Amino acid sequence: MTKLETPPVAPPLSERWRSSTARLIMIYGGFFLAWTVLLIGMINWQTATYLEHIVDNILVQRMHYLASIERDRLPTILAATSSLDLPGTMSSGLFDSGGGYLSGEIDKLPADLPQDGLVHELPSGVEHINGMPSSHPRAVAWRLDDGSILLLVRDYWTVDRVGKIIRNSLAWALTLALIPGLLGGYLLSRGPLRRVRRIETAVAPIMRGDLGVRLPISDRRDEVDMLASIVNRMLDRIENLLGEVKGVSDNIAHDLRTPLTRLRAQLYRLQRETPGDDTRTATIERCIADTDSLLNRFRALLRISELEDIRRRAGFGEIDLREKLGRVHELYAPLAEDKHIAFALDTPAALAAVSADGDLMFEAISNLVDNAIKFTPAGGRIVLRAVDGKTGPRIDVIDSGPGIPLAEREAVLHRFYRTKACRNEHECEPAGFGLGLSIVSAIVKLHEYRIEIADNDGVPGTRMTIFCAGDSS
Question: Tell me: domain 317-470, CATH 3.40.50.720, correct?
Fold first, then answer.
């Protein structure tokens, strides 16, 4: 099934995060987040390194201080200094030259700990300070002058705690910064989306063929206004070019009607003045038929131009489609009967009224029926049907003719286009001008309706459907 006439309209942008403004904010926010995380890591690493350096210096300085104290006073000083420290932070131990315990909170000398007076890191959770498991112990051991060994151990959980406080603070700061940023991005994206929707509304009549409409331009003069200005200039140029082409076409059609009409009159007079000459009479009749064909084409061209030039809807009003369909059936029933074609009318007892120009709708339906009669062979069947859809009535003209190929269903609505099977007038009976469906297309566009060409439900033929009020059910 092929839907024609109304180009597909993109759905409205309901998700604000799909707008370019929101995407830019999200990209910037992503870079900001990554940079902030990197910054938090750098601050945490620098702070931890600095604090560890300070604590290491404290350990070394205390070791130098304790090593300078007399040996017999050292246990008392160790006890006094330990009481001044925070519980579980600093511990000490004094051992003899063989590693035996003498005094202090630590009763065991760590194995493989160098006794060089430098700070070394101990395995986490192995050593104990004041009976508490240590998480990040660092120790310094020094052999005194009398051979005894002095050990100081410091747990760096305070450093870890400070680092955790810094990380949590920066994380909260980042979160509090991102929330207004995301909210601001959401609010900022609303403005451009509203403008895009206004442009979408303005484009709708342009898509229907009204090239006199222009896109709105605000006082901001931003990039959206620049784009709208470019499109408006392009529309100006397109409107001028199409107007020139259309004017030339209309002028040619209008100017040639008069001499062709005179030529036909002269041929008709010549035919009457030469009775009895069958050969000449037949030639003149063919010339008259060709002249009539040209006049009909020019008449159809001018009619299409007239329909496309309509910019007002003064002739619109509520019409009874059942009455219009009945008149069309009454008009074409004798012609269908002459061609031995069954022509049926199928309308419901009640049909919703539509707002339309009654004469133009009668013309559009008549053209569809006329086209169906032309291409339906003798013994065929045509159905003129109306159905109430979800949003408005639907008019079907169904025939049992040869049908229209899928690839040509949109093209047959253009001027002068005929299917490949009918491009040679001597091979297609009857030969058409390729303008009847163009008139229907122009009328449908004027009413903002939609026409659809489809197969005849799996059997040979074509179904032409006019959806009133844009219904597609």
Answer: no
